[in-house]
Specification:
Elements lengths: L24 E14 L3 E8 L6 E2 L2 E11 L4 E6 L5 E10 L2 E13 L5 E3 L20 H9 L8 H15 L1 E2 L10 H7 L1 E2 L1 H14 L4 E8 L5 E11 L2 E8 L4 E2 L4 E7 L8 E6 L4 E14 L1
Parallel strand pairs: 9-10
Antiparallel strand pairs: 1-7, 1-17, 2-6, 2-16, 3-4, 4-7, 5-6, 8-13, 11-12, 11-15, 12-13, 13-14
Helix pairs in contact: 1-4, 2-4, 3-4
C-alpha cells in the first residue's frame, strides 16, 4: 500500500511518556532521507537500499510505504531476499549533481511483548552458528567467552542475557573510532565502538558458545541514527522464537525498537551502498525521524 505523504505530518505521541510494551498495538512512522552529492556529473550509478522494514517480522507489520527519488532518472527493482528483507536496487545512467532517496513507512506492531516465532530448524541453522569475517573469534573473544563459564545447562534466554551483559561491560560507546570494516576482535581489543561493534562482539560470543544468533539493523526511538542489535534464537515448545537483545545498552530490546533487516552481520544489510563511474568525490548526508503515531 502506498503511504499518503500527508500522514508524515500527522501529530505524534511523546513516546517517552507512553508504556509501549504494555500496549496491544503500536503504530510507528518512519521518515528517512539519503542524499548523495557529487563535485561533477557521474555515470552508471548503481545503488542498493535496505531501508524499508520487512513486510512482516514477527509481530511487526509494514502497512504502507513509499520511496521517492529525485535528482536523476532511475530504474528500480524491489525484491525480498532469503531472509525476508526488502532490497531495492536502483540504476541511473547519469547524475548531474545529486540524487536523493526519501523513504516513508507506516509500521504496526501487535502484542509487542510476543517474540518472533520461528521454525525449530532455526536452532541448528548453520548461518546462525558460524562466524563471518566480521565476527571471527580471536584469543580475546575466546577469553571473554571462557569467563562466562559453562552455560550449557543454563536456560537459553538466560544465556543470551548473560552474553549481552558481558558485551555491555566490555565495550564503551564511542563514535568515530571504528568503521564498517572493523571486526568484533578489533572492537573488543579497543574496548570502544558503536552499536554495530557491540552487536558483532555479541554475535562472536554467541558463535563460540553455540548460541544461534543474527544481526539486526533498524531504529531505536529517541536515537539520532540507525541502530543495530542481536536476535538470539531459543527453543519454545515445538518451535523457536527470536529474542532481541541490545548489547550496546545491555538490555533486551523493547517496543522502542523497529526492525528493518536481519543478516549474519552488518555486511549483509548496510542501509545504503553502491558504485558509480566518475573521477569526482561523493558526499552523503542523511536525516531520520521515527515517531509513534498511536499506541493502544
Amino acid at each position: 500500500m502506498m503511504l499518503d505523504p500527508e500522514l508524515l505530518a500527522a501529530p505524534v505521541l511523546d513516546h517517552a511518556n507512553v508504556n509501549l510494551d504494555a500496549a496491544s498495538r503500536v503504530t510507528y512512522l518512519l521518515e528517512q532521507t539519503f542524499r548523495y552529492s557529487y563535485d561533477g556529473p557521474v555515470r552508471n550509478l548503481r545503488h542498493r537500499l535496505v531501508v524499508l522494514p520487512p513486510v512482516r517480522h514477527g509481530n511487526q507489520h509494514l502497512r504502507a510505504h513509499r520511496l521517492d527519488i529525485s535528482g536523476a532518472a532511475t530504474r528500480r527493482a524491489t525484491r525480498r531476499d532469503a531472509r525476508g528483507n526488502t532490497v531495492v536496487r536502483l540504476h541511473a545512467e547519469r547524475v548531474e549533481q545529486s540524487v536523493e532517496f526519501r523513504v516513508g513507512a507506516l509500521v504496526e506492531r501487535l502484542n509487542p511483548r510476543d517474540p518472533a516465532r520461528l521454525p525449530a530448524s532455526m536452532l541448528t541453522d548453520p548461518r546462525l552458528l558460524r562466524p563471518t569475517r566480521l565476527t571471527a573469534a580471536d584469543h580475546g573473544l575466546r577469553e571473554l567467552a571462557a569467563s562466562l563459564g559453562t552455560l550449557g545447562a543454563t536456560p537459553a534466554a538466560e544465556r543470551a542475557a548473560r552474553i549481552c551483559a558481558a558485551v555491555y561491560r566490555a565495550m564503551t560507546y564511542e563514535y568515530g573510532i571504528t568503521s564498517v570494516k572493523t571486526t568484533a576482535a578489533e572492537a573488543l581489543a579497543g574496548g570502544r565502538g558503536v552499536c554495530q561493534d557491540s552487536a558483532h562482539v555479541m554475535l562472536a560470543l554467541c558463535h563460540l558458545l553455540a548460541v544461534p544468533a543474527r544481526y539486526v539493523s533498524g531504529h531505536l526511538l529517541g536515537q539520532g541514527g540507525t541502530h543495530a542489535w542481536v536476535e538470539v534464537v531459543v527453543p519454545q515448545g515445538d518451535h523457536a522464537v527470536a529474542m532481541a537483545f541490545d548489547p550496546c545498552h545491555g538490555k533486551p530490546a523493547t517496543a522502542h525498537y523497529l526492525t528493518v533487516a536481519i543478516g549474519r552481520d552488518y555486511s549483509d544489510v548496510p542501509p545504503t551502498s553502491g558504485s558509480y563511474i566518475g573521477a569526482v568525490d561523493g558526499r552523503l548526508t542523511t536525516s531520520r525521524r521515527v515517531a509513534v503515531l498511536d499506541a493502544a
